[in-house]
Design goal:
Layout: E1 3-6, E2 9-15, H1 22-31, H2 40-49, E3 60-66, H3 69-76, E4 82-85, E5 103-106, H4 109-112, H5 116-138, H6 143-146, E6 159-164, H7 165-175, H8 182-198, H9 209-213, H10 250-256, H11 261-277
Parallel strand pairs: 1-5
Antiparallel strand pairs: 2-3, 3-6, 4-6
Bound molecules: flavin-adenine dinucleotide.
Residues 77-81, 167, 170, 174-175, 179-180 line the site of flavin-adenine dinucleotide.
Length: 280
């Protein structure tokens, strides 16, 4: 029984339409009335920055993913995408589509730098679980039941993923944040570099939600934006108020400009009442 330690990986990355795929977004902007005098690259960037997202749905991106079975359900949370996993009902877990045989696992991030004795404790338990899986299949237990014993760290054989650019930017904005899980951050970072490689026009437009919106929605999360640094998350590079890459949270913007929330609500409601009345 061979167990191989592998890393989270993105491969077969394809932007349908190749390096010119972004021009499809410009075409749809022109269809909706954006005048020809505005440079095409500026039109594309404006669509991303102003979050006129529906035009971005014309760009389709496909790739394959290697990740843990545990992380697969996190990726599956991104519903506006098409997901295909390799079945562990029909195939034994050590057989993979278009790949070498053997069991693959991914070590958790926080064990990578630990010494060998800690990794050995982990591997002992993983080996035991896989051994039990083999034994159950040997006794005639169907694969779909034997697999229940397998650990979170078991790598999926292959996971095929198709997503449009609007939804991918949403995924990246959520998962390129220090609050995302280490494995999702690894996958999102690989997607980021693959995407920039194929669509370099996106450089400077992609990052965490704070980077993309100019204000971070992670309000009051202790140890991430405020309070003592969280022992597990990496420090947010944008939280230092004295740095030239400071990105405020929404309430920090409001504090800075002495934003009057009650007044803003009142003014909004005056407008909403007028609009609701249809009195002209
Ligand atoms: C740091 C972090 C922590 C998280 N913690 C948890 C957790 O503790 N528990 C948990 O369950 N999940 C957790 N999640 C997952 C999170 O709640 C989302 O499910 C996931 O990030 C997918 O985001 P999404 O819904 O925007 O993406 P998609 O499902 O791809 O949706 C894209 C967009 O489509 C729209 N949309 C999709 N479906 C609907 C719908 N039914 N109704 C209205 N609009 C819709 C929304 O605008 C949405 O942003 C966490 C995510 C992050 C990044």
């Amino acid at each position: 029984m061979k167990i191989r330690v592998v890393k989270p990986k993105i491969w077969n990355f394809e932007v349908v339409g190749g390096k010119d795929a972004w021009k499809e977004v410009v075409y749809s902007a022109r269809v909706s009335g954006v005048p020809p005098e505005i440079d095409e690259k500026e039109v594309f960037k404006m669509i991303v920055k102003n979050d006129y997202g529906s035009a971005l749905e014309h760009i389709i991106i496909k790739f394959d993913v290697k990740m843990t079975k545990g992380n697969a359900c996190e990726l599956l949370e991104h519903r506006i995408a098409s997901h295909t996993g390799y079945s562990t009902r029909y195939a034994k877990v050590d057989k993979r589509y278009g790949d070498t045989e053997g069991y693959e696992i991914i070590l958790p991030w926080h064990l990578l730098k630990k010494d060998d004795s800690e990794k050995a404790i982990f591997m002992e338990s993983v080996s035991k679980a896989i051994e039990t899986y083999e034994k159950m299949i040997g006794c005639g237990v169907p694969r779909e039941s034997a697999r229940y014993i397998l650990p979170f760290c078991q790598a999926v054989g292959i996971y095929h993923f198709t997503i449009n650019l609007r939804s991918l930017l949403n995924l990246l904005s959520l998962r390129l944040c220090v609050r995302a899980s280490p494995e999702m951050r690894c996958i999102a970072s690989q997607i980021y570099f693959n995407l920039l490689d194929q669509l370099p026009i996106l450089k400077g437009l992609i990052g965490c939600r704070g980077f993309m919106r100019g204000a971070c929605p992670e309000e009051g999360v202790t140890g991430v934006r405020a309070g003592k640094q969280h022992p597990v998350y990496p420090p947010c590079p944008f939280k230092n108020k004295n740095s030239d890459i400071f990105i405020p949270t929404r309430s920090e913007i409001h504090i800075a400009s002495e934003f009057n929330l009650n007044k803003a609500v009142k003014i909004q409601e005056i407008l909403f009442k007028k609009w609701a009345s249809w009195d002209g």
